[in-house]
Each structure stands twice: as structure tokens, then as C-alpha cells.
């Protein structure tokens, strides 16, 4: 196999130079990290599942007119994506109180929020991804006011799509994180969904049992992490050709 140039290695993924200009190959590792890298493990098969689940979600978003970086899946662990300029923000949408918002605001885990809430976090490992306000985003020029509006509108459309998708298979979408990138086409710039959307970046609870089906199983030492991801994949029907 020809050696490929590695562009970037993150906690759960590696990016390689793609076959054509403007493309990259996104490789899904089995590594899991939490609490800003303080907790680590290798969960065999996680990368394969997240590759499939993220492909399925990105294709669904494209179908409803939300642009993404996804081009096509290449194999069990890799997908071809568009090379975009990543906006250094994590956009979190919450429907139900859990995780950091429950702690920060003293809310009961599992209580429905009065409406979907959008939060921005500055992507910076050394700082532990601090929450930031629009004021910081525009003052430090991480994104323009128009881009903030566009990200919020897209994040809500993604939330509606994902909440419906998961409800259809008996799963409650508690919250999720999404990242955006700028895709340059001549003079035009458009915002596209980047990175991945998978049980690593969502909170997913079984509607009947309340069982946790996402990365909180790893964060909270509940065990059965890949089994839960596999169940999410199975319910979404993304494993049909490999089962
Ligand atoms: O920890 P917190 O409650 O703020 O997380 C909100 C949502 O964002 C969760 O679904 C979590 O998995 C996701 N998240 C993420 N990457 C981070 C921080 C949070 O995918 N660095």
C-alpha cells in the first residue's frame, strides 16, 4: 500500500492526505478518551461502528439539505471527506439536562429543558475546552456574527433530524456535539458539518429502560461500551451488510 501523508492525529481519529486536492481520508481509531485525555482505553471495534454510524447520519443530513464534509465511506475504518477549515468551536445542543449543564446549573439529570439550548465551547485541549459566549467568539475572531447565526440554525436542524431519527428506533437524544468547517469554493465560503456524529459525541438513552447507549458508559465505568454502540448501529440498520 502506498504510504500516505498524515495530516493530523486526534484522540479518536487520524486524517491523511486524500487522493484528490481538497480531500482527506478520515480514519476512525478504537481509542476512547474522556475528561480531557485523563482517562484512556482502546475499545476494540469502536472505530468501525462510529465510521458506519457517522456515515449514516452525514448522508441523512445531506438528504435534508444540511451540507457536510462527508464524500463517501472507503472501508471499515475510513471515509473520504472534504478538506475544510475547522472553526475552533464545539457546538453543543441539549434537549435534556445531563453532564456539564446539570452540574453547572444544578439541574436534575434527565429533566427536560424548557427548550433546546445551544452552547459553544472553545476547542482547546490545554484549556479543557472552556464554554464561551458569542462575545468571545466574535472578539477573538473565531467566527463571524453571520457564521454564529448559521451554526445555530444548522445545529437546530441537526437536532430536529437526529431527535426524530433516534426516537424512531426507541432512543432519546439527550444532547450532542457538532463541529463546523469552512469549505472554500472559488469566492464562496460555505459552512459544512465536519468531524463525526456518533455515540462518542451524543448522549443517547434507551426510551424504555433508560439505559445509557453512548460514551458515558466509558466515562462512568459502566462497561459494555462497544456493545451499546453496536446496538445503536443495529437499530439504525447500518450493520445490515456485515451481520
Ligand atoms: O460534557 P457535556 O455535558 O458538556 O457534553 C455535552 C455533549 O457534548 C455530550 O453529548 C458529549 O458527549 C459531547 N461532547 C463531545 N466532545 C467534547 C465535549 C462534549 O462530543 N469535547
UniProtKB/TrEMBL annotation:
- The top EC class, named as a word, is ligase
Q: Return the EC number.
A: 6.3.2.6
Q: In which pathway does it act?
A: Purine metabolism; IMP biosynthesis via de novo pathway; 5-amino-1-(5-phospho-D-ribosyl)imidazole-4-carboxamide from 5-amino-1-(5-phospho-D-ribosyl)imidazole-4-carboxylate: step 1/2
**Catalyzed reaction equations:** 5-amino-1-(5-phospho-D-ribosyl)imidazole-4-carboxylate + L-aspartate + ATP = (2S)-2-[5-amino-1-(5-phospho-beta-D-ribosyl)imidazole-4-carboxamido]succinate + ADP + phosphate + 2 H(+)
Please name the InterPro entries in this protein's record.
SAICAR_synt/ADE2_N (IPR028923), SAICAR_synt_PurC (IPR033934), SAICAR_synth (IPR001636), SAICAR_synthetase (IPR050089), SAICAR_synthetase_CS (IPR018236)
Q: Which CDD domains match?
A: SAICAR_synt_PurC
- Location of the SAICAR synthetase/ADE2 N-terminal domain: 6-235
The molecular function terms of the Gene Ontology recorded here are:
ATP binding; phosphoribosylaminoimidazolesuccinocarboxamide synthase activity
Give the UniProt keywords, A-Z. ATP-binding, Ligase, Nucleotide-binding, Purine biosynthesis
Q: Name one GO biological process term.
A: cobalamin biosynthetic process
What cellular component terms from Gene Ontology apply here?
A: cytosol
User: Which family does the similarity line name?
Assistant: Belongs to the SAICAR synthetase family.
Spell out the protein name for this chain.
Answer: Phosphoribosylaminoimidazole-succinocarboxamide synthase
| Organism annotation | Amphiplicatus metriothermophilus
